[in-house]
Amino acid sequence: PDVCAQYAHNLPHHTVIEGDAHAYLLEHHTEFDLIWSSPPCPTHSRMAKGTRHTRRRYPDMALYQEILLLMHFFKGLWVVENVVPYYDVLIQPTARLGRHLFWSNFHIDGLASVPHFRNQGKSAMYGTANAQGREAMREWLGLPPMLKNIYFKGSNDPGKALRNAVHPSVGLHVVKGILPC
Hints:
It is built from 7 helices and 4 strands. By secondary structure, the chain is α+β, with helices and mostly antiparallel strands. Strand 3 and strand 4 (about 100-105) form a beta hairpin. The chain has a 4-stranded mixed sheet, with helices on one face. The longest helix has 12 residues, at about 60-75.
């Protein structure tokens, strides 16, 4: 609900649907011309294998389920974004930018020139643990002031939502590569 409220605040002229995005994609994928999906990454990320984490869990296969659904049943253009996993990827991505992988049914070119967290130095990537770092990241992403800190289920890290965001210039770059200007 907090993420949906922030999206509705940021994009007041858009329709925000609160619910299970994975289930929504399965039921509604035929209604769109272009789909961008970013399934949750905590069970795939290298941090899931980090020494400070003691909870072991299976990787959430929703990532690969969505790629396979779109690859074989969707007639439009699609891209799925996620982090570089701690294991060898099961389906080779189309492109990579820093810690983000992209699978798509079209060629993604020139991502190396697009701003991403690593270009901003370590402080932009890891400094979201404090309010000053979160504010700097929010400004860098071009987001309006946050309504409040957003916490993902099972996380006590208020900077995680910002840290996992894909910079709008990345989305614009990907979409400009497939749509006529």
